[in-house]
Specification:
The protein has 1 helix and 13 strands, in the order ββββαβββββββββ. The protein is mainly beta.
């Protein structure tokens, strides 16, 4: 599902503090941290409400946006290019980073693309792509919707673990016995 607006309500007075209106905002790509609201926004002006597929949003141009949570004032906006997402997209925050991950099909394989951005300025830090933990496409009904789990300094993006600062792939055995097993079905990890 998507929206075209975002707002803040004062919990003491139950009045609207601010309203932001813009393009299409996918609900799965909104997060808040340290007094900032971060979200993905498409410049799409044709769709009016409800569901808007990722291809439409991607083809209209995607931006990563940061607002001040108290005032709704835009802090920064970063244009995203070379985005391949077609099935799902998720946004998370940790430390001073914003993590975007989504899935797409390529060469008969479901793949995930991950991008990490600086929370203060929106600058791109690193990107990576990897295959899903199962071969092929059209198999288990959850293979395209695995969201990441972010721990202090690493990101679990099945079936890999990335160092949040560098994007280097981390050997799970170096994380106190942490492991990611190949699995099937629609369940996704949480942390």
């Amino acid at each position: 599902a998507t929206s075209r607006a975002m707002f803040a309500i004062d919990p003491e007075t139950n009045t609207t503090r601010w309203v932001y209106r813009g393009g299409v905002i996918p609900h799965s790509a909104i997060a808040m941290k340290d007094g900032r609201v971060f979200f993905l926004e498409s410049k799409d002006t044709q769709s009016t409400q409800g569901r808007v597929d990722l291809a439409t949003m991607r083809n209209s141009g995607l931006q990563l946006v940061s607002l001040d949570a108290a005032s709704g004032r835009e802090v920064w906006r970063e244009e995203l290019t070379n985005v391949k997402w077609e099935h799902s997209v998720y946004l998370s925050c940790s430390q001073d980073a914003i993590i975007l991950i989504g899935s797409h099909n390529e060469n008969e394989q479901n793949r995930y693309s991950i991008g990490v951005y600086d929370a203060d300025r929106g600058a791109h830090r690193w990107s990576a792509e990897h295959n899903n933990n199962r071969a092929g496409i059209g198999g288990d009904h959850g293979e395209q919707v695995h969201h990441p789990v972010v721990f202090d300094d690493f990101v679990v993006a099945e079936p890999l673990i990335y160092d949040l600062a560098s994007g280097d792939v981390i050997d799970p055995t170096q994380r106190n016995g942490f492991s990611i097993r190949s699995r099937s079905g629609c369940g996704t990890i949480s942390g």
